[in-house]
Specification:
There is one protein chain. This protein is of the alpha+beta class. It is built from three helices and eleven strands. The strands form two sheets. Strands 1-2-11-3-4-9-10 form a seven-stranded antiparallel sheet, with no helix packed on it. The chain has a four-stranded antiparallel sheet with strand order 7-6-5-8, with no helix packed on it. A hairpin with a 2-residue loop joins β6 and β7. The longest helix is centred in the C-terminal third of the chain and has 36 residues. It is elongated, with a radius of gyration of 37 Å.
Length: 247
């Protein structure tokens, strides 16, 4: 049994289009679901955490155990250098760490902060060349954290001598990406890609059907044409024999 040209591609296109619509529909529902009670929603204020967070961007906060703060955590804290009640910063070092920076020297070929004698990898910075606008060398006391913004050339932080490390209990919350929000972002991308693949297959299938419809009809097979004279020749003697028998 022969199938129409493009039939399989057409079926695959329908499946992909339906699947893409289902994914996008699910993402829409997921985005409408409120996060668990332990999360609170807010908005980033200012540009001190750019490019990681920009002014007005939605953020999610969760309670934090000050004893479990880790290097790299983005937190909301009451800091002496901010006019606001709280401000977003990143934990660069914790109690017992030595953090330092010398603008006139390079570490491993790049300008880097040095944490406990090792160059600090900071992939969240927009420019590796500007990990700090000033030199500093600080050993963080126990129970304190060393905070800096990601926008090092346009933010205040513990690196300035008049600020220094901040008591860990001044940290109010940890800034996190709500898992459902992250899933929604990837879901939108996946749904769009599946819909695009379905649309491409549908187009290819339609072109295949048009080509098949425009193609001339195939000539009759030679074997079928040759078989007719043979059958007629085989029937002639039989007819002659019956006529002689009647006469």
């Amino acid at each position: 049994m022969t199938h129409r040209p493009g039939r399989r591609r057409g079926i695959a296109a329908i499946v992909l289009l339906v699947l893409g619509a289902v994914i996008l529909g699910g993402v829409t529902v997921a985005k409408a679901v409120n996060p668990p009670a332990r999360y609170s929603e807010g908005k980033a204020a200012g540009w001190q955490m750019a490019p990681t967070y920009t002014d007005g961007e939605s953020i999610y906060l969760e309670p934090v155990d000050t004893g479990k703060l880790r290097r790299g955590d983005v937190v909301l804290a009451s800091v002496p250098w901010s006019l606001h009640k709280t401000q977003m910063n990143r934990v660069i070092a914790v109690g017992g760490d030595r953090i330092r920076y010398k603008p006139s020297s390079k570490t491993s070929g790049q300008y880097r902060l040095v944490l406990n004698g090792d160059p600090l990898d900071e992939p969240y910075l927009e420019q590796w060349k500007n990990p700090s606008a000033v030199a500093f060398d600080v050993t963080v006391p126990e129970g304190y954290v060393f905070l800096m913004g990601d926008n090092r050339m346009n933010s205040d932080g513990s690196q300035y001598a008049n600020n220094g490390p901040v008591p860990a209990d001044h940290v109010c919350a940890k800034v996190v990406m709500y898992p459902m929000a992250k899933l929604a972002v990837w879901g939108q991308v996946a749904g769009a890609l599946v819909l695009l693949a379905g649309a491409v297959l549908a187009f290819v299938s339609r072109r295949a059907r048009k080509r098949a419809a425009a193609a001339p009809a195939a000539p009759e097979a030679p074997e079928a044409q040759a078989s007719e004279p043979v059958a007629a020749a085989a029937a002639a003697p039989a007819g002659g024999e019956s006529a002689d028998a009647q006469s």
